[in-house]
Amino acid sequence: MTQNSPKMHLIDVHYQPGVIDCYTFVFDERNPRTAYYTLLATDETGGMFSQWTEGTYDPHGTNEHLGERVRLQQLGTVLVEHVLGRMKA
């Protein structure tokens, strides 16, 4: 994200146990060519694994490929601080 680009907004969070990038944070930014959404995949704390990527997401669907939907209030402080820090980078 550049200084002049619009800010991304977090629109959804999913959790999938048993994989290293168990949390997926979905943002409203979309690739105009592929229509993929911007995603941040991270581990339990963001300490060992965290990557920006793009992927399929349906705002009105269950998105089972991303795991279970998680309410932001259910996330720990460490993980929230990590995600907010990555958004600034």
Tell me what you see in this structure:
With 89 residues, the chain is of the alpha+beta class. It has one domain. Helix content is 13%, strand content 31%. The protein has one helix spanning 77-88; strands spanning 10-15, 23-30, 37-42, 50-55, 68-69. A five-stranded antiparallel β-sheet has the order 4-3-2-1-5, with no helix packed on it. The protein is globular and about 35 Å long. The mean pLDDT is 84.
Give the secondary structure arrangement, pairings included.
Blueprint: E1 10-15, E2 23-30, E3 37-42, E4 50-55, E5 68-69, H1 77-88
Antiparallel strand pairs: 1-2, 1-5, 2-3, 3-4
Could you list some keywords that capture this structure?
13% helix; 5 strands; 5-stranded antiparallel sheet; alpha+beta; 89 residues; 1 helix
Which stretches of 5+ consecutive residues score pLDDT under 50? none
| Share in β-strands | 25-35%
Instruction: Work out the helicity level.
Output: 10-25%
**CA distance, first residue to last residue:** 8 Å
Number of beta strands: 5
Give a short synopsis of this structure.
It is built from 1 helix and 5 strands, in the order βββββα.
